[in-house]
Every structure is written in structure tokens, then in C-alpha cells.
Amino acid sequence: MKVNVGELLTTLKEEGVTSQSREVKPKELKTAGLKETAKSLLDNIVEQAKAGKISQVEVTNAKQELSIRLEMNVINLPVRYVNPMEKILDSESEAEVNVYMIVEAPKVTRSGLRIDLLGTVDDVIADPAGKLDTLVEWLTGELEAIEENKQEKPKED
């Protein structure tokens, strides 16, 4: 799936993306629950992609200050960062749309944001089962990192 970058930026500024969000319980982020949660995210993003819509899907847990998202974009920045994208991207070009895995939480990294490529939209549509395995493995690692970082004591200056 390719898009005109200028049209994408205009859409992001004026209309935003098709977005779906829901709150999850901590048990939905553990073992079997995590796979089901990841599958619901992936199924939704595939459905939107097949309809040709740029979208994002999210699950949150307010108590843990956690957001897990899949977002379609042409660059590895959250779609809400339209202004930096305008400075970086050539609005006259066409670009492949990718699906990015995003975790936002205070303890995921120093910046509180982790973003990695899941694949192009076409790759995700072609192999949702394989991409589900990739997503679950990635989420498992990120959630473990959050837990480990919570245990670390702050370094004194």
C-alpha cells in the first residue's frame, strides 16, 4: 500500500486517522491474554488496511500508565507528530505505508516511548499469523523490560 506523502500529511492534520481504543485489565497483558489482545489489535489494523484507511488501534491500562498501539505510517513516528513529519518527509513523493508497534509507558525507555516496525501494510495483510507471532514476542519483551525497569533503583548523581 503506497500513499502520496503530501495527501497523508494533509489527512493527518485535518482529519486524523481512523482510531480505536479500549482499556484492558492487567490479566489481558499476560500470557494467553496477551496473545488475544495482540490478535484483536492486529485483526483491526488488517481490516482497516484492507479498506485502504490509515489507522491506529490501541489498548491502554490507566493504572499502569500503559499504551500499546499499532499505527500505520510512512515513518517511524507516532501519527500525532505531524509537524516533525512535515519537516522530514518529501510531500511530493509516494511512500510505502508501514505498520509500527508502539509502547508508551514511563518505564519502557528513558523517553517513555518504544516504536518498532512490524512490516509493510502489504506484508501484514499477507501474513497475519506470522506477524501476530512477531507482535506477541515483541510485546512480551517490552512488558518484561517495563517490569525490570520498575525494579531498578534510580541512580544518584
Describe this structure in words.
The structure is a single chain. This protein has one domain. By secondary structure, it is α+β, with helices and mostly antiparallel strands. The model has no long low-confidence stretch (mean pLDDT 89). A five-stranded mixed sheet has the order 2-3-4-6-7. A two-stranded antiparallel ribbon has the order 1-5. The termini are far apart. The chain has helices at 5-14, 31-50, 82-88, 121-126, 128-151, and strands at residues 2-4, 18-23, 55-61, 66-73, 94-96, 98-104, 113-120.
Rg, please?
Answer: 16 Å
Strand content: 25-35%
* Biggest sheet layout: 5 strands, mixed
Distance between the terminal alpha carbons, to the nearest Å? 49 Å
Low-confidence stretches: none
Q: What sort of overall outline do the alpha carbons produce when their principal axes are compared?
A: globular
Q: Count up the helices.
A: 5
Q: What is the count of β-strands? A: 7
Order of helices and strands: EHEHEEHEEEHH
Oligomeric status: single chain
What's the domain count? 1
Strand order of the biggest β-sheet:
2-3-4-6-7
**How much helical structure, as a percent, in the residues?**
40-55%
Average pLDDT figure? 89
Decide which structural class fits the backbone.
alpha+beta
